Amino acid sequence: MTPFVPVIDAHCDTLQRVLKKEGTLGEGIPKGHVDLARMRTGGVNIQVFACWTPVPYQRHGATGYALRLIETFYRQVDQFPDALFPILRASDLDRITPSGPIGGVLSLEGAEPLDGYIEALDAFHRLGVRWLGLTWNFRNAVADGVADGESGGGLTPFGEEVVRRCQELGIVVDVSHLSDAGVEHVLRLATGPIVASHSNARALRKHRRNLTDDQARAIAATGGVIGVTFVPSFLTDDPAQASLDHVLDHIEHFAEVVGVNHVGIGSDFDGIGDTPPPRGLEDVSRYGNLRRGLAGRGFTQADIAAIMGGNWLRVLRQVLPD
Ligand SMILES: [Zn+2]
Fold this sequence. Notes:
Elements: E1 8-12, H1 14-19, H2 36-42, E2 46-52, H3 55-58, H4 62-79, E3 84-86, E4 102-109, H5 118-126, E5 129-133, H6 157-169, E6 172-174, H7 180-189, E7 194-195, H8 213-221, E8 226-228, H9 232-235, H10 244-258, E9 263-265, H11 287-296, H12 301-319
Parallel strand pairs: 1-2, 2-4, 3-4, 4-5, 5-6, 6-7, 8-9
The protein binds zinc ion.
Residues 109, 177, 198, 268, 271 line the site of zinc ion (ZN).
């Protein structure tokens, strides 16, 4: 018997759908990609739920918007207490069993909700936020996003303070969406694992949201993990043709460049915008296809367990407060 290793997805935008009343995690979200029943089918045990601020709110109103999403998450926990619980500390990871309740990790995607105040980071931590994507695509008080990368901007002094405070509090620091200069700047300040929750390999698909091999190596050197993402436009030059095979290509590439212990999954389900998800990975219930695909590419069962969640588990154990 191989020991149980949870399956962990490091990024989805499903809380937006619940907030918009498209459904609930327990009763199902017909238009969406993720709900508790389909997570069970796909074997997902821990889901990182992103709180992303829509663009019109990013300059004003981000704090309130993030609070709405955080409250949406806790209302789901209240409504389905036997099926969903928040992961707040390392010991909560021990509550995960193959068929037990699913653990949710709250993440801010973009530091806009901090509104430039370090105390706000502590307050969000008290509210259960355990993961911070420093930027979305655009510049904020912390750093430049990928869409501002041409200015060459890294972290601001406030951004340096935020990275340091995340590491003190036990918040996972996430560089997906950050400008190249920002990624390098964060890596210089790393005292523990730095992650990219949902980014692919620029060597396979030249896209500003993807990582260079050097960035991937530097992330791995911190003990961090790269979450390969299913967003078709980050997978291939022809997003309409994106399939499971492209996802496997990116996983294989990172496994070759940084080793299998630094590769994970960050689907971006419910955040995939213009195209449907890749063929074979239409929603979270399809994770079995990914497992089988990895086996088909020659990964061992131990490798597959690491990629499907074991690596994220290691990061969470290391970063989260006791
Ligand atoms: Zn994103």
